[in-house]
Design goal:
140 residues; alpha+beta; OB fold (Dihydrolipoamide Acetyltransferase, E2P); 3 helices
């Protein structure tokens, strides 16, 4: 099944769509400077096919963070549009749930600047609190 067989999801505030991902592809948008965005094709419990065009920043970002795979369940809720703090524009707010997705938490934290975890376990906290008898670096 492809996106050609489904209908585009045009949610109203508070609306949610849930289903199994049957295809992941990309689509082109001429908005702004133009560019590719994710297009997620879901099969709902009733058998209908829904295309989720993920061109809104919050939806795209949340899906990129979760990286759900074909065959996994996806739940997307549209919470409406909100004005930015500076009041200059509005943004579409979405939440994304991926109950079947295994998140690689190490990669997540490393993408935010965390160091690669040590191959050996860290010292137990108790050992870290012990004061050595002779500490030549002590300033006193």
């Amino acid at each position: 099944m492809t996106q050609d067989e489904g209908t585009g999801w045009r949610p109203e505030e508070g609306e949610r769509v849930e289903g199994k991902i049957i295809d992941l592809t990309r689509a082109w948008s001429d908005q702004g400077t133009g560019g590719w965005y994710p297009l997620v094709v879901l099969k709902k419990a009733d058998g209908s096919i829904v295309n989720i065009h993920c061109f809104h920043h919050t939806l795209r970002t949340r899906l990129l963070d979760r990286q759900p795979k074909v065959g996994e369940r996806l739940i997307v809720t549209f919470h409406g549009k909100r004005e930015t703090r500076d009041g200059k524009r509005t943004v579409a707010i979405y939440s994304v749930e991926t109950p079947d997705t295994q998140v690689d938490s190490a990669s997540f934290w490393q993408s935010l600047g965390a160091a690669t975890p040590a191959a050996t376990p860290a010292q137990p906290v108790v050992d870290q609190l012990e004061i050595p008898e002779m500490d030549e670096d002590a300033p006193f």
